[in-house]
Amino acid sequence: MSGRFQPGDRVRVRFADPPGHIRTPFYVRGKTGRVERYHGDFRNPEELAYGKDGLPRRPLYLVGFDQSELWEGYEPARRDRLFVDIYEHWLEPA
Amino acid sequence: MSAETRTDGHAADDGHGHEHPKHELGPWAKRVYAIRDLLIEKGVVTAADVQQQIDYMEARSPANGARLVARAWVDPAFKARLLADPKAACAELGIDATSINEFVVLENTERVRHLVVCTLCSCYPRPILGRPPDWYKSLNYRSRAVNEPRAVMREFGQELPDDVEVRVFDSSADIRYLVLPVRPAGTEHLSEDELARLVHRDSLIGVVDPRYDPAAVR
After folding, report:
1. Domain containing B192 — which CATH number?
2. Which one, A19, B33, B149, B173, has least CB within 10 Å?
3. pLDDT tens, residue by residue, A55-90
4. CB pair distance less than 8 Å for B174 and A45
């Protein structure tokens, strides 16, 4: 199975702060990036952490961000980027 | 020595069949040993299981990563396979990467450098590199690698020209990343084994390029 996003799609990370075990780093929440790669479907770590089976598996994407999108004042002349693996339920179209 | 590295469980036998360190342990180490003892007493695992797992963890080292890189440097077809299907390429060299869900190799070029971090904990390609260094798990590295990677690399001795792009990989889910560094200039005459000795763990995390120092290769 593949997910709803394709490489090249612009996506925004949901800005949410639910309690529990979350694998989406806080600093990318609410930020806009681009899908670079679809890794496959994996058990949901937010449920695995509590002894559940983590099913159904969730699509996992590599999402790339411009560093200047993430950090105010990041060395402006640089075109450096940052990549994070994010599960589909944390992403929405941008 | 930390609890994590104390693997010998040496010293006095207190009469219930296995050994405890003689010197005073910190609270975390005491807890670890107490849990180990309970698991053994309740028959969940055996002492042999524990030792076998320790041996397995100790057997994995950055030398595995160095072998992959050296082979990729001397054999372009292997390099292509390493990038396309890293786990299969590991198997070719007898390196067991099957416990990694998904393994990705990031190829550095003259224009692009990759840097790996896990901001949430200490995700690390352990089957390839063994245990992560303490600095990799530090709050300092985990917070700074993402927002000032160039400063972090500079502290490891890596000066990057302006036109080089830095790509930070925050390895926080099921994927494990290994950096394939650029082969240092002036190493054309070196053998694969000699090249492997140039590849330090830190280069496989991406904080610094391997250097060719003739004194280090004999």
Report:
1. 3.90.330.10
2. A19
3. 999 999 999 999 999 999 888 768 899 999 999 999
4. yes
B53 and B83 belong to one structural domain: no
Q: Total domain count for chain A?
A: 1
For chains A and B, CB pairs below 8 A equal: 69
- pTM here is 0.86
The total number of structural domains that make up chain B: 2
Q: What is the arithmetic mean of pLDDT over B163-168?
A: 96
Q: How far is it, in rounded angstroms, from Cα B60 to Cα B55? A: 9
d(CA B47, CA B49): 5
Show the tokens assigned to B82. 């390493």
Which of B119, B147, B150 is closest, CB to CB, to A71?
B147
Q: Is A54 near chain B, with CB under 8 Å?
A: no
Residue A4 domain-assigned?
Answer: no
| Among A31, A51, A39, CA closest to A5 | A39
Q: How far is A74 from chain B (nearest CA, A)?
A: 7
A55 domain residue, yes or no: yes
**CB-CB: which of A25, A40, A78 is closest to B119?**
A25
CB contact under 8 Å between B146 and A27, yes or no, is yes
**Whole-number average pLDDT of chain B:** 89
User: Rounded to an integer, what distance in angstroms lies between the CA atom of residue B202 and that of residue B65?
Assistant: 11
Structural domain boundaries enclosing B165: 62-216
* B138: annotated active-site residue: no
Question: Domain with A26 in it: what CATH number?
Answer: 2.30.30.50
B167 close contact with A: CB closer than 8 A: yes
* Lowest mean pLDDT, pick from B23-27, B160-164, B202-206: B23-27
The answer to whether residues B119 and B165 belong to one domain is yes
CA dihedral over A53, A56, A61, A65, signed as positive or negative: negative
Residue B121's pLDDT is what? 87
| B166 domain-assigned | yes
